Amino acid sequence: MKKSTQLQRLLRSGNTEFLMESHNGLSARIAEEAGFAGVWASGLSMSAALGVRDSNEASWTQVLEVVEFMSDAIKIPILLDADTGYGNFNNVRRLVHKLEQRGVAGMCIEDKLFPKTNSFINGEQQPLAEVDEFVGKIKAAKDSQEDGDFVVVARTEALIAGWGMEETLRRAEAYHAAGADALLIHSKISTADEVLEFMHRWRDTCPVVIVPTMYYATPTSVFEEVGISVVIWANHMMRSCITAMQRSAAQIYRERSLVNVEQQIAAVQEVFRLQNAGELSMAEKIYLPQSASLSPTQM
Ligand code: SPV
Ligand code: MG
Questions:
Q1: Could you identify which of 20, 181, 247, 272 might form a hypothetical disulfide with 36, taking C-beta atoms 3.0 to 4.6 angstroms apart as the criterion?
Q2: How much distance in Å is there from the Cα of 43 to the middle of ligand 2?
Q3: Ligand 1 pocket: which of 19, 57, 83, 119 to mutate (most atoms <8 Å of CB)?
Q4: Cα 180 to Cα 206: distance, rounded to the nearest angstrom
Q5: Could you tell me the pTM of the whole model?
Q6: What whole-number distance in Å separates Cα of residue 48 and Cα of residue 18?
Q7: Nearest alpha carbon, ligand 1 atom 7
Q8: Could you identify the atom of ligand 1 that is nearest to the CA of residue 155?
Q9: Could you read off the pLDDT of 15-38 as tens digits, one per residue?
Q10: pLDDT of 153-212, one tens digit each?
Q11: Quick check: is 204 catalytic?
């Protein structure tokens, strides 16, 4: 089944589904092996892994390159965090075209202005896009996709920016009417109250996606009860890496030895397995000449 179709089905399965953050081919493969049915290519995590800020410092083609490696590494669908779409409606159209070429199942665009920054950095001071302008981007995305199942998620930052529930509902209606396949309602408070109120007032016409990074203590059953379609665990692979790498780096530096770290980290063989090195060995048996030819000086 096409990855885009898989992602459409996740959005409409009738259950609460989960996307795990990934930020490169390796983390995408690990998420897939853990059992996740889809991946969130997080802007925060991809930029952090590249050593830059989540403020469009990585160009859109650099993001495209990362997400292409991820797409090649896994069979499950990727929802790309495409920030604001990296420009206006025209940039969005070209982005959709390029994502489809690279087998990326869908993208999420947010109603902020380019260059954006992460929602948890002075989120309330960040300007929002005009509704009409953002609606134009959603329509342009839907009109330009060649794969009918390519997913466009529209994300509103109205709650993050402090514009309130009425504005959030107004934007959700407009984005839904523009053809978005799902709405991402983002909230930065430490309880699920805002998204629960939204679900209470939102007529159930379009899948809703949430990112409970800040309200992580809310039991998942609460999201299931109110009919959330997809929960995104948005940055937990990247944050896990940071903790593990900081621990190993400090220990190796301090002890000037690998002895105590060796048993705590993945074996080199595990790296080869995750890279699917075995497939290459098999292919070499088929495609390489069996007796290696020696250079004249070796004879
Ligand atoms: C991301 O993962 O980059 C997101 C989610 O956009 S958040 O960091 O919560 O804004
Ligand atoms: Mg982001």
A1: 20
A2: 4
A3: 119
A4: 8
A5: 0.96
A6: 22
A7: 119
A8: 6
A9: 999 999 999 999 999 999 999 999
A10: 999 999 999 999 999 999 999 999 999 999 999 999 999 999 999 999 997 789 999 999
A11: no
Residue minimizing CA distance to atom 5 of ligand 1 = 234
What is d(CA 142, CA 240) in angstroms, rounded to the nearest whole number? 35
Catalytic-role residue among 54, 81, 83, 111 = 54
Model confidence over 144-169: pLDDT tens digits? 999 999 999 999 999 999 999 999 99
Domain boundaries of the chain, sorted by first residue: 3-234, 242-287
How far is it, in rounded angstroms, from Cα 21 to Cα 47? Answer: 13
pLDDT at 117: 86
Ligand 1 atom index nearest CA of 54 = 3
Q: How far apart are CA 275 and CA 139, in angstroms?
A: 39
Fold of 3-234: TIM Barrel (3.20.20)
Residues with CB under 6 A from ligand 1: 42-44, 54, 81, 118-119, 211, 213, 234-235
